[in-house]
Amino acid sequence: MLRPRCGVWVDDQTVRKSPAASWLAATARHTAGSDRQALIARRDALLGDLAQLDARQRTGSVAADKYEARRRRLVNELERIYGALDEAGTGPQGGGEGIAA
Question: Do residues 78 and 47 touch, judged by C-beta distance below 8 A?
Fold first, then answer.
């Protein structure tokens, strides 16, 4: 019988007979998890950069045009990362219409 195993569709008999099939299923799961962790780490770094940029802007140590351009790039990159995390579908669910608070 064909079943999903760690994100990979494999035959039960193949898994029992082939260590490679077992390894492939485990690797696929690990890769998806490590990709998500990389996205989360990048998101956290960008949020830190954004906070530093905003602090520098408040003290007047960055020119307005450079602030706007850098902030726009950071926010665009954060939007891309949040989109990738949403596509992975392995985060908290909710926030949709019709959900009671």
Answer: yes
Question: Would you place residue 85 in the very low, low, confident or very high pLDDT band (cuts 50, 70, 90)?
Answer: very high
Total domains in the chain come to 1
Contacts of 91 (CB under 8 A, 6+ apart): 85
Q: What range defines the domain where residue 42 resides?
A: 2-87
70-to-24, 46, 59, 63, 81 alpha-carbon distances in Å:
41, 11, 16, 11, 17
* Residue corresponding to tokens 């064909």: 2
- Tell me whether residue 98 is in a domain: no
pTM (2 decimals)? 0.57
